[in-house]
Every structure is written in C-alpha cells, then in structure tokens.
Specification:
Blueprint lengths: L1 H7 L5 H12 L1 H4 L4 H7 L4 H10 L5 H18 L14 H21 L3 H12 L4 E4 L2 H16 L4 E2 L7 H7 L5 E6 L5 H12 L3 E6 L5 H5 L2 E4 L16 H20 L1 H25 L10
Parallel strand pairs: 1-2, 1-3, 3-4, 4-5
Helix pairs in contact: 4-5, 7-13, 8-13, 9-13, 10-11
Length: 299
C-alpha cells in the first residue's frame, strides 16, 4: 500500500519525508500534477521525485500517480474530521468540500444509529392528531426549524415558530391539550427555551425535546427526547462555526416530516400537489398584473 509507506516513512530522508507529508496533505491536488509541478510544490526536483517513486518500489511517477490516486480517496474518507475545526488554512477548496461532506455523512450516520423508531412512531402519531406544532428554539436550532415549518405548512399542518425569543412564552401559554411542543436546543440549557419549557410543564403540555445533551434540563423535562450524539463544542469560542449540530438537527426534523408524510402518503401527495398548483396559479395572476413581479418558482 502506497499510503501506508508514506505514513510510515521508513528510511526516508528529510526531503522524502517532506514530499510524503505534502502528498498526504494535498492528495486531491496531486492527481492532476505533473512531476515538475510536484517538484516545485515540494521544493525538490523531478529527479528527486523519480528516486522517491523507486524507493516506493515503483518504476516511475506515472505508475505512482495511478496507484496513489486509487488509494487516496479511501484514506481521506477514513480519516476523522474534527467537528469544531473541520478544515485548516492549508486545505484546498476540494479538500474543504470533501471534509465537510464527510463530516455531514458521519454526523447523519451517528444520528441514525441512536434512533428509536418506536419513539418516532409515538411522536408522529401525536403530531398527526395535533391542532398545531409549537417550536421552542433560538439561534442556529431555530433557523434549522424554519425549513421544517415550511415543509409542514405545505401540506396543511400549522407550525408556529419565531426567531425572536420574546414570543416563546406566548406560544407556551397558547397551546392546547392537542398541541405538540418541539423543544430544540443543543445544550438543552438555553434560558429562554428552559423558561418556556417550565411554563409548558406547569400546563402538563406534551413536549418533545431534541438535544445533544442527555443530562440537560430539556432532556429531563420533556416526555420524549431525541438525543443526537455530537462531538461539536457548544461554545463559538471553541470552533469555526456550527456544522455538525446543524446537520444533525436538520436530519432529525426531515425524518419527522417524512415519517409523518408517509402515514398517509397518497393523500398527502395529492394535498401538496393541489397547494403547489394554487400557489403557482396565484403567482401567474400576479405576473400578468405586474410584469416586474418575479415568482418564487422562477427565481
């Protein structure tokens, strides 16, 4: 295995170690590099690269390139991605894209592994029988929930969500016995969310928590808790920004929507088509009245 030899660096000179390090760090760029380009990038020479290939028991750079490219994809995929710092300043655009794709894939796989499908059936049944869904969340979690709200509204489910936390207590007091309350918080300790949750508990309201913290207030106070296992730090001072938690929460909400939609698939498909047709017709009327109007369908 070429990659194994590059990692072991057995009997490598300092120059060869530098070349090996560069190859492991910039493998996706190397696949299209000529021997001269690689020599320039590693501050060596084509002759040095050729000798390096022979040390790896290969008869030349072309053979090395073919074998290296065939192995590098698997090597890069197996490497763990730091959820807080998924890329560095030395990464190429392609490396960053692939690392983010892997982080997203790993996050979703880990999230699925913790799913309790009997729990999802209970939650989805309650949502299907509810008069409305109120969402209690702030920050990144709330922006994720906006997509869920839009999907739900398209097939006739009332979902209340507001990015301003001052509305949360009002939602807590406005719900009925049939209302489903979704409480979404990575830490499970956001002050505005927890205060609203306490109001909900006093009213014995049905609450579903989505959180990454199993011993949090949200996890303790909700009747149903969907836990997502994340390695992303809660503090913005300890990470570039939010990546994994966004993917995990978005995926959980997408699953909730899809499970609910599936309960009466044919009827829901008919309903969404009818609503889409109505929206399209109304947009067309607006366009005829005002040619400058651009419908959302045509943006």
């Amino acid at each position: 295995m070429i990659i194994e030899k590059l990692m072991r660096q057995a009997d490598f000179t300092d120059v060869e170690k530098s070349i090996a390090d560069y190859l492991l760090q910039n493998g996706y760029e190397v696949k299209n590099m000529s021997i001269s380009d690689l020599a320039k990038r590693t501050y060596s020479s084509p002759a040095t690269i050729t000798r390096f290939c022979r040390k790896l028991d290969l008869d030349g750079y072309k053979k090395f390139q073919i074998l290296f490219n065939s192995e590098y994809d698997a090597f890069a995929t197996e490497s763990a991605v730091d959820a807080n710092y998924p890329f560095s300043g030395n990464d190429s655009f392609e490396q960053i894209a692939r690392k983010l794709a892997k982080l997203n894939s790993d996050t979703i796989s880990k999230t699925i592994s913790g799913f309790d499908y009997n729990q999802f059936r209970r939650i989805v049944r309650r949502i299907s029988q509810s008069d409305m869904v109120n969402i209690f969340s702030v920050g990144t979690s709330a922006t994720v929930a906006m997509d869920f709200q839009q999907k739900m509204l398209r097939f006739g489910h009332i979902v209340n969500l507001n990015l301003s936390s001052c509305f949360l207590p009002g939602y807590a007091l406005a719900g009925t016995e049939r209302t489903v309350n979704l409480v979404i918080s990575q830490s499970g300790e956001n002050r505005d969310v927890v205060e609203s949750l306490r109001l909900l508990k006093k009213r014995k309201a049905y609450c579903v928590g989505i959180t990454a913290t199993p011993d949090s207030t949200v996890a303790r106070m909700c009747q149903e808790v969907i836990l997502v296992e994340l390695e992303e730090d809660r503090s913005y001072t300890a990470k570039i920004d939010t990546f994994a938690v966004y993917s995990a929460f978005h995926f959980v909400l997408d699953c909730l929507f899809s499970f609910l939609y599936k309960m009466d698939y044919e009827e829901n498909e008919k309903l969404t088509r009818e609503k889409a047709s109505i929206i399209y017709e109304e947009n067309e009327k607006l366009i005829k009245k005002n040619p400058d109007f651009i419908s959302s369908e045509k943006r």
